[in-house]
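Async update (no meeting this week)

Hi team, since we skipped the sync, here's where things stand on the single-chain job. The sequence we agreed to prioritize is pasted below, unchanged from the tracker. I ran it this morning and attached the output directly underneath so nobody has to dig for it. Comments welcome in thread, and please keep replies under the output.
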Amino acid sequence: MQDDISGWSEWFRNFSGIEEISSPSELHGLLTGIVCVTNAPTETEWQQILQTLNVPDLEPTALALLTDESEDVAHALSEDELDYLPLLPDDEHLLQERVQALADWCAGVVLGFGLASGHIRSDEIELIEHLQDVAAVEFEDSDNDEEGEESYQELYEFVRLIPVSLSVGRKKVAVEESSLLQNVHAKSRVQTAQTGQNPSSVVEMFTPHRPS
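Output:
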């Protein structure tokens, strides 16, 4: 199966049980959106990022997989060779599953990009809106035909290179200098200064329009 070649099987095995993330594809989108803005996060930085999303600690193998994929994606996006690929189930899966995975991936990209950048530039608004539109796509039984397959492929090709457009020409920042971990660092400083108190931690999340 292409799932083994693409890495989807391993990705699904390690990340499908995370309740706080809709699917492994959303996690890959989140990763992609983040590295459009920042350098690839280290394992320690990933632990902190996932904490802000209330995701439980990952097993060491899963954390290493996430970190390695970050480096691979960061490299693919920096090359501008149009070979970046979202991590999605292959065409042996039902069309409905693939459509949902693509929608999840788009939602993840928007979330990761918003968390890392803190703002959207005027020239990026339309690209983000395209991702949000696909994130809101809902599969209907009538879509399960050849025309539906063609539409899925068109959607896939339409959105898969948006991260390249968001990444190219952008000066990457260190994760600690981005808006990703500002709340973590702020909380740490407050706790150090006010021992014994429990200040609340507010994580501003750029939430895409997506079906619940």
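Quick observations from my side:
The chain has ten helices and no strands.
Residues 147 and 154 are 11 Å apart (CA to CA).
Reply here if anything looks off.
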